[in-house]
Design goal:
The protein is α+β, with helices and mostly antiparallel strands. The protein has a domain of 158 residues. The strands form 3 sheets. A 5-stranded antiparallel beta sheet has the order 3-4-5-6-7, with helices on one face. It is elongated, with a radius of gyration of 31 Å.
C-alpha cells in the first residue's frame, strides 16, 4: 500500500491575515514618510520666509535708513524734496556701499507691480539728477529688480513728531523735511506672517535749517580733511 506524504503549507486564512498585516505596516510606513516630508517642507518654507524677512529688512536698513534729504531744483520756486512717500510708493536718495563700485547719489523707487506671475514689490535704482522734473525719466527699466514676490498687500506709513508725540501718516509729499520713522507693512499671498518693519531715518532735518543734522555729499568729508591738511 502506497502512503501519500503531506507537505507543510499555509492555509487561505493564514495568507489573508499575513496580507492584511503587511498592508497595515505599509500604510503606517507611508504615513510616517508623508508626515516627515510635510514637516520638512514646512520647515523649508519657514526658513525661506525668515531669510526673505532678513534680506528685506537689511535692504531698508542699509538704504532707507541712510536716505539723504536733498532738493530737486535748487531754486526756491520749483524745488521739491527728493524724499516723496505715498501709501504704496516711496522715493528717496541714498548711496551704495563703496564695494559695489557704483558711486554717486542714487534715486531709489519702491512700488508694487501686478503682472501675469503675480504681485511683486519692485525696486528701481538710477543715478539721481536734481534737475529732472519727472522721476520716470530717471528710471532705467534695466535697473528694476524684484525685492519680494507673492505679495498680497504693501502699505507704507510715515511718523511725524518726536519724543513719542506725533502720528502716523500715509502720505509724505511736498514737504521740506523727512519723517523720523517709516513703517513698512507687507502681507504675503501664502499667508506667511511678516512683522511690521519700522525704519529710523538717520537724517531727518530740513537741509536749509540751521538746526538740522549736518548733511555732506559723499566725499566731502575727505575733501575737507585734505584742505585742512594743506
Amino acid at each position: 500500500m502506497i502512503r501519500l506524504s503531506r507537505t507543510a503549507g499555509f492555509t487561505l486564512i493564514e495568507v489573508l491575515i499575513a496580507m492584511t498585516l503587511l498592508s497595515v505596516m505599509v500604510l503606517l510606513l507611508f504615513g510616517s514618510l508623508k508626515i516627515g516630508a510635510d514637516s520638512w517642507e514646512r520647515g523649508e518654507h519657514k526658513t525661506a520666509n525668515v531669510n526673505d524677512i532678513g534680506i528685506t529688512y537689511n535692504f531698508f536698513q542699509s538704504y532707507l535708513a541712510t536716505a539723504i534729504p536733498l532738493f530737486k531744483h535748487p531754486d526756491e520756486d520749483n524745488r521739491a524734496l527728493s524724499f516723496q512717500g505715498q501709501a504704496q510708493r516711496l522715493e528717496f536718495v541714498s548711496t551704495f556701499p563703496a564695494s559695489l563700485n557704483r558711486g554717486g547719489l542714487q534715486l531709489f523707487s519702491i512700488y508694487p507691480v501686478q503682472d501675469a506671475e503675480g504681485s511683486h514689490i519692485k525696486v528701481n535704482v538710477s543715478p539721481f539728477d536734481p534737475d529732472s522734473d519727472d522721476v520716470a525719466e530717471q528710471q532705467n527699466p534695466d535697473n528694476e529688480v524684484d525685492l519680494i514676490s507673492g505679495v498680497a498687500s504693501f502699505d507704507l506709513e510715515y511718523w511725524q513728531g518726536e519724543s513719542g508725540e506725533g502720528n502716523w501718516e500715509d502720505q509724505w509729499q511736498d514737504r521740506d523735511f523727512m519723517p523720523r520713522l517709516v513703517k513698512i507693512k507687507i502681507g504675503l499671498a501664502n499667508g506667511s506672517f511678516w512683522p511690521d518693519m519700522i525704519i529710523s531715518l538717520r537724517v531727518t532735518g530740513n537741509p536749509d535749517s540751521q538746526d538740522s543734522d549736518s548733511i555732506d555729499a559723499p566725499g566731502n568729508a575727505d575733501d575737507d580733511d585734505n584742505d585742512d591738511s594743506q
